[in-house]
Every structure is written in C-alpha cells, then in structure tokens.
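Possible regression after last week's pipeline update?

I re-ran a chain I had predicted before the update to compare outputs. Posting the input and the new output here so someone can diff against the archived version. Not blocking, just want to make sure nothing changed silently.
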Amino acid sequence: MATRSRSARAAALASSVQRSKPTPYPSKARSAFVRRSVLAALVLAALTLLTISFRSPTAGALHDLQGVGSSILRPFQIAGTRVAQPFRDAYDYFDSLANAKSENERLRQELATYRSTQLLNAEKAQEYEQLVKLMHYHQGSTFPNGYRAVNARVISFSASAFAHTLAIAAGSSSGITVNSPVVNGDGLVGRVSNVFSDTAIVTLLSDPNSYVAARDLHTGVQGLVHTGPGGTLILDDVSKQLVVSPGDTIVTNGTRDPRYPDLYPFGIPIGKVPVGGVSVTDTAAFLQVQVQPFANLGSLDSVAVLVKAKSKR
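New output (post-update):
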C-alpha cells in the first residue's frame, strides 16, 4: 500500500510542473545572410563616400563637414603619431643596424676576395717576370756552352731555419743529376743535392756547406764564395796585395784544370761587391770581401737547372 501511494504522489507532482520550451536558435543560413548583408552595406557606404569625396566641390557643406571632422580628429592623429614615433624610431634603428651589419659583412667578403685576387695576380706577375729573365739568360751571350736549361717550378722551401734548400718540380726524368748547377734569370742559385724521378732538392748558395770557385770579372782576382759571419756571402782567400773594388761583378770561375773539373761552368753571375764591402785588418791574411747575390734566394718561383747537352756525333 505504501508503494502504491508514493507512485500516485509522484505522478501528481509530475503532472502539475510544466517545463518551459527552449528558445529556438537562428539557423546557419540566416546568420550567413546577416553577415553578408552587413558587409555589402559597409562596402556600399565606403564606395558612396569615396564617390562623394572625389566629386564634391572644394567648397560647400560637405567640404565644411569634412574639415570639421578632420579638425576634431587632428589631436587624436597627433597623439597617435607621438605614441607610435618611439616604436617607429626603434624599428628604424634596429633595421638600419641589421642592414649595416649585413653591408659590413658583404664589404668584408669583397675585401678578402680582392686581397686574395691581388696577391694571386702579384704572384703570377712575379713568376712571369722571373720566366722572362730566364728566357733572356738562355738566349744571352753569358749562357754556358755545352749546357741546356731545364726550367722547373719551385714547389716548396725548407721548413727548417738552418736548412737552406728548396724543392723543384723536375728530376732525373728530365736529365737532372746530382750537382747540376741551378740558376734563375738573375744569377746562380745553388746546386742539386738530391734527385728523384720528377722532383729534386736544391741546396742554395746561402747554405753553410756551399763553396763556389769564383773570380772578380773586372780584375781577375780569384777566391771562394761561401757563407761568412752573420750569414752574408763573402769572397774568401783573396790576398791583401790584390785589388777588389765596390761594384765589381763576381762570377763562377769554371774549370781551370781538366784534371779537376769544377761543378759550375765559367761565367755564371753570382753577385757584386757592395759599397763598403771591402775591408782589411793588420792581423788578417786575406781581404774581407762581401758579395751581394744577384738572385733573391728567399723569393724564388721558378729556376733553371743546367744539364750538360749530349754531344752530336
């Protein structure tokens, strides 16, 4: 009985309460139509105002209304400009700074390219000048008889400060042998001290173990050219009674006795006696003669190796 009475009471309460109907939402088509209508109205209004502004005279009610509107909005424009000016200045500063950095980097790269090109051109010009001098020496009257020249490019200098040598790109395959004289367009450079198939090692005049039989071309005074004190070249073993003058040219002495052939043929220019290069002391047995080499031994790009020519039968 209790269960039945509870069911009847719940049914009576449910029947007495009326639920409100939900508010219907506008359809999607209606919303899209409204948005399009508003957009079309705004576009039409904008076109109308533009047309009136272009076609209206410079005087009149509409012109005066535009002037009043501009006057009213002028303070806001000025305020907006002043507020935006620091941000605009900051943007211009950072933009100009970025452009300046980019320009500096571009100029730095162009400068590096220009310097490398300039160095390459200078190196090529120096090599060309040395080759021209070699050609003139080959065709000149001082070129030794019975020899031919093997031109070779210098590929490396010795990395040691105590070893005065360089490597050239020519070897035994070109007829080069040990002790072959080496020259450039200015004068004697040294001799071949080691040879391989396509390369060779050249010992320079400045090496402490280098000795060259030489003579003064003007006076005929003979001696030995080798490295003296301080690394300079000297003409040694010259008697104090002989005369050697500044400006005299020193050349290779060549073979004086067939029984003792010299490594160097006669007449290869070695250097000249500089001003103040001749001195003598009471205790010394020989003259002290300095020799300034014609060849720049520290800056060689190409050389010529003198190889004995084969005799024709």
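Follow-up from reviewer: compared with the archived run. The two ends are 153 Å apart (CA to CA). Marking as no regression found.
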